[in-house]
Structure formats: structure tokens, C-alpha cells
Amino acid sequence: MSSEDVKNMQVELLHSLADLPDFDWRAWSDDNPFISPAFLRAMEETGCTSEETGWQPCHLILYDHDRQPAGFMPMYLKTNSQGEFVFDMAWARAFSQYGLEYYPKLLCAAPFSPVTGPRLIARDIQARQVLARAAIEVARRLQVSSIHVLFPEKNDLALLRTAGYMVRESVQFHWKNADYADFDAFLASLTYDKRKKIRQESRKVAQADITFEYKRGKQITADDLSFFFSCYCNTYYERGRHPYLSEAFFCQLLQHAPDSLLLVIAQRQGTPVACAMNMIGNNKMYGRYWGAHEYIPGLHFETCYMQGIRYCIAHGIALFEGGAQGEHKLSRGLLPQTTYSAHWIARPEFADAIHRFLDEETVHVQAYLDELHEHSPFRKQDEDGKQEATLPRPVPSRSE
Predict the structure, then answer these.
(1) Basic and acidic residues compositional bias: what residue ranges (predicted)?
(2) Mean pLDDT computed over 312-339
């Protein structure tokens, strides 16, 4: 693409994907299920992302000189910080203490999903660079306080940093498939105490007469989905909160993107008692939603993590992301992984203060990763052929 082509590009705001029916950006987004047209449209059409929920669609669409779509940035005008999984409430309080408005802000993310994926979705690197800069111009035009790009991939992160965004680090726990022959081979790769703990937990669940059934895509019936949704709601109700997503959203997602959905249903003598929904795309599985109708010791970990790992091994899926936070996942074989967000703050004095905060926070995140490094669940061969614990070093810090 020539510099003249870049100059002739135009960026527009789109407040509903219904106004863009023929634009399918999946080829530019590694088939990530959380930013697919089916996922984002289901969010909008069922009211999960709306002005009423504080997630008003404000997408950036990039057109070339022939008026053909060249790029897309899933953006929302946010009036709260709910459903984001990157916590900036302290920043909002700081603005308020100085009599300034933090909301609305612009957010680029997969709604309600702490999942890394493409955020500058375009046909080439020049178009992605244009999107990163154009978002700042849009923020200035709308006079919002800030832009927040959550869980971008590393390729996007580099472009965002160059465009003037600050980078923040966090930690999640992901499981990687080392071409395990079966689940026992995975257990054999763990240290003795971790292997013993997992087996004990699984035995307790089995002794409670619990068995598991996997259902993917068109195998999922309306009754299955209804049961899952009741479990999903229970998880929120137990915490005194209202669910973010509606049953209509899940029904529409099943209708338009069935192969992205996997239900793990826990049953006692054929009666379902708990359920986890995972999402699948691009040889990755993502643990997302869970709930139960009764408490059974060990059932949460078995349903959400061990059964997920079993499925990945059986179907050759390379990576299982276990969701936000949760160092308890380390003992189940999920390793710490640095995740990122990128932030642009309109007011220079606040930008300077937040930049200093992020520098200090990065030091603590790296120290936390170093501490986790010392508590590996896996074994390695020492010089005498014995097994001892190790953990891959954390990915480079944001200064690199």
C-alpha cells in the first residue's frame, strides 16, 4: 500500500453492526471467536452491548479509496468499568477527586471477555497503523477522557505503543498441549504432589456419582442451553449480582456460530447438576462460563479445568486459556502468562501520573511472575536423570 493510498483512507464510526451487513473480518482476525461477526452482532442484537448496559457500540471502520472496508476496531463508549477484567476504578476515582469526568471513555475489547486477540483488525500493517492513530483522533473529537485497548495480541501491542499508548501488564494462567498421548501422560509430567492432588479431587467427584458429557455445536439442544444458562445465572446470583449476558445472546450465538461452543455437563445418574461453557477457535479453547445447581467438593475444578484439559488432549487442541486471574490454576498445570492492555489518556498530567504508576506496577507484576516461577507444577530432568520442578520464564516486560 502506497503512502497515497494511506492518505486516502477514511475512518468512520459505526453505532450498529446491523448497518454493515456484508463486512466479514474473520480472515483478518485469526478466527478468534470473541471478535467474530457472529459474537459481536449477538451482543448488540440481544442488548448485551447497548447504551443501557454502558457498552454503547462505537466501532471504527476504515475504508480505502475505493470505499471498500480495509479495517475494523471493535469499540465501545463506556459509562462504567463493568465486564472489562482490567481494573481502572482507581483511575476513575483520581479523576473524580480533581472534579473531572472519567466516563465516558472509549474501550476496544471483546465484550465481557478477558481473552487475548486481534484488536487492530485490518488487511495489512499500514491499515492497522492507521486504526491505532485514528482512534486517538476520534477520542479527541468525542472529548472522552481516554482509550483502553484490552488484551491485544503482541503484534497489535507494538503498533499501539508506537502510536503513543501506554502498556499495562497482568497475568493469566494458560495450559499448553505438549502433544500428550492421553490425560495420564499429562499427569505424569507433573510433580508427585500436584499429580496426587488432581487424582484425589477427581476421585471425590467420581465418588459423588458424577459423570461428564461433552456437547459441541449442533449436539447442544435447547434444553442443554437452558440448563447451562440457569447454571450461569446461579454463579452471579450467589454473589448478589445480575448476569451480564442474556439467554437470548447464547441462543443466537449457538444459531450462528455453533462450532465455537462446547458444553461440559456434569451429571448424576443422568440428571445434570452443573455445566461449563467453553469456546473454541483457531486451535484454542477458552474457559468462559460455569455454574452449578448444588455444591459438590471438587466439582468446579474438575468441570472447568480437568475436563477442559481432557478434551484438548483428546482433540489435539493446542492451548486452553483458563480465564481471568486465579493462581489456584497453577497447581492444575496452567502456567502464568503475561497479558496486556494499552491506554491513551487525554489529559497530559494524568497521563504522566498513570505512566509512572504503570512503571511501578510492571515491577510488581514481574516479581509476581518470578515468584510463580519458583512453584512449578511440572517436572524436569536434572543431571542425574531425576525429576525436579521448573517453569518457563515469563515473557519480556513491556519495556522491551
Answers:
(1) 377-387
(2) 92
How far is C-alpha 43 from the chain's CA centre?
A: 15
In a domain, 359, yes or no: no
DSSP secondary structure letter of residue 65: T
Cell of 220: 447442544
- Give the angle subtended at the CA of 230 by the CAs of 78 and 325, to the nearest 5°: 50
Q: Which residue has the higher pLDDT, 297 or 395?
A: 297
Sole residue written with cell 521448573: 390
Report the 10 Å Cβ neighbour count for 259: 11
Note whether 273 and 284 are within 8 A (CB): no
Helices and strands in the chain: count of H runs, count of E runs: 12, 17
Residues across the chain: 400
Question: Which pLDDT score is estimated for 21?
Answer: 76
Task: Give Cα separations from 173 to 50, 57, 114, 305, 308 (angstroms).
Answer: 30, 30, 12, 11, 14
303 and 207 in a common domain: yes
Question: Which CATH number belongs to the domain containing residue 288 in this structure?
Answer: 3.40.630.30
| Claim: this prediction has a pTM higher than 0.90 | yes
Query: Last residue of a domain, which of 317, 338, 357?
Result: 317
What CA–CA distance (Å, rounded) separates 400 from 383?
33
Burial 174-185 (b: 16+ CB within 10 A, else e): bbebeebeebee
371 occurs within a structural domain:
no
Q: In degrees rounded to 5, what are phi and psi of residue 130?
A: -60, -45
CA dihedral for 136, 142, 147, 152, sign (positive or negative): negative
Output the pLDDT for position 323: 85
Given a cut of 90, is residue 377 above it in pLDDT? Answer: yes
* Whether 118 contacts 35, CB under 8 Å: yes
68 shares its domain with 103 = yes
Average pLDDT value for residue range 12-16: 95
| Distance in angstroms (rounded) separating the CA atoms of residues 79 and 51 | 8
> Which residues contact residue 117 at a Cβ distance below 8 angstroms, ignoring those fewer than 6 apart?
29, 30, 32, 34, 35, 110, 151, 152, 153
- Asked if 27 and 36 touch (Cβ cutoff 8 Å), the reply is no
Q: Are residues 122 and 17 in the same domain?
A: yes
Q: What is the mean pLDDT of residues 20-36?
A: 90
Grid coordinates given for 15: 453505532
Do 288 and 188 meet the contact criterion of CB atoms below 8 Å apart? no
